[in-house]
Amino acid sequence: MFDLIIRSANLPDGRKGIDIGITGGKISAIDRSIAAQAGEEIDAIGRLVSPPFVDPHFHMDATLSLGLPRMNVSGTLLEGIALWGELRPIVTKEELVDRALRYCDLAVTQGLLFIRSHVDTSDPKLVTVEAMIEVREKVAPYIDLQLVAFPQDGYYRAADGISSFNRALDMGVDIVGGIPHFERTMGDGTASVEALCRIAADRGLPVDMHCDETDDPLSRHIETLAAQTIRFGLQGRVAGSHLTSMHSMDNYYVSKLIPLMAEARINVIPNPLINIMLQGRHDTYPKRRGMTRVRELMDAGLNVSFGHDCVMDPWYSMGSGDMLEVGHMAIHVAQMAGIDDKKKIFDALTVNSAKTMGLEGYGLEVGCNADLVILQAQDTLEALRLKPNRLAVLRRGKVIARSAPRIGELLLAGRPARIDSSLDYAPRD
Ligand SMILES: [Zn+2]
């Protein structure tokens, strides 16, 4: 006996017309046709049912602050950091909590139920940390929120950087962050990577650093991060976020670097929307793309997962909490247009990110948590193409968000009256 059966689902691995039985909040059967009855049934009518989207890189303390206290006039990374520095001293805990909760509402409707957020620890008052810890508790019934201690103004460079950072970890932040390329010198950056990996080893925490978010090919902190990961025995528990300098590095150097990263089992987190928007700003033409080497890193066996990074904040006025928008951009920037490529990109928004975040019970297997999304698309390729509505979002077997299918009404004589951009336009077999 099942609590719920989802009938006729297409799965991300390509299986079609599959039934998914749910009992006690877990997936208890996946079969071509489940004969049993259930208290409730949902007919997916041949639409894609996926595990939820996972965002491994976000800034929940800055989200939805667009226009406060002013707009980013130049639209650059450095003005964004300066602007956040203006907002941070005047923001209240209540505002931070309110904005984060509103973002989480949006995320749930987009089927995004797992988020890793960096939290700025630079201001010694640590209002951001207090607020995000409160948010982590409040959203726990519907979103798993991991928090990274993020020394935005530099671990060494900020006046109280080290003490504030350590206090944030004492308060219960989950992960050790860093920003080596923003320290005063390359030497300070290198030293910060070593110091922060040591802290992670001592405290038994994972690491996730903003690393080499620059077009400077000589910004090579990822090499140090990989080496320190091995030195401190942190293999598989360390993430390098952005790594945009790899785009511009010398190919010989990269041929040595990628195997080192693989040995350290570094989780790689590019942020395609932000990277394509913010990198290459010192170029005239040709203008670099500034995203790290996604295909080469995947081919070398590294776990690559994509982050949204920003939604309507000092760095990025756009964004919608839709990880498919992130994947759509990734396909274009990485030029991953093949069929297998698109499958890899979808994995980078779901299972790879779950691995990066160390999620347990995630996935579409018997015994996993019944956390699922039904999309208005028939397969992963169509999902990436259309960024369709999430018809239903389930958490532990309960529907927690719904959207109506997106149907266009057409008022043209002799043409169809209704257009479903998924079903009506699927390629014919
Ligand atoms: Zn970031």
TrEMBL record:
Root EC class: hydrolase
Alphabetized InterPro entries for the sequence: Amidohydro_3 (IPR013108), Metal-dep_hydrolase_composite (IPR011059), Metal_Hydrolase (IPR032466), Metallo-hydrolase_Enzymes (IPR052349)
A biological process term (GO) from this entry: cytosine catabolic process
EC number, as in UniProt: 3.5.4.1
MF (Gene Ontology): cytosine deaminase activity; isoguanine deaminase activity; metal ion binding
Keyword ATP-binding included in the entry's annotation: no
Ranges of residues in domain Amidohydrolase: 40-399
Any Pfam family: Amidohydro_3
CDD domains attached to this UniProt entry: Bact_CD
Entry keyword set: Hydrolase, Metal-binding
Name of the protein: Cytosine deaminase
Organism: Pararhizobium polonicum
